[in-house]
Amino acid sequence: MTVGVLRVSLRIPSRTLKEKRAIVRPVVERLRSRFNASVAEIDALDAVGLAVIAAAVISNDPRHADEQLQAIAAAIQDWRLDAELVDLETELLDA
Description:
Layout: E1 2-11, H1 17-35, E2 38-43, E3 50-59, H2 62-78, E4 84-94
Antiparallel strand pairs: 1-3, 1-4, 2-3
């Protein structure tokens, strides 16, 4: 079994946490519904201009897990977000 983890850092042009959440929440919900992955904002929760989102997938095939993570990353890059992609990391863990 393979667990795949994707971590994405976004710079968000917001002045308040409410503005930040208005950008981050739809991204998280869209990823959850489109890719059937576990997705959450995991870091910088109180930072107004930064969001760190993680997605996790589980598969019996490491290639499939990696393909899912790459598809999620591509979707984030393709969507016209009101945010700048700062960092993107993937990791595959064998369990």
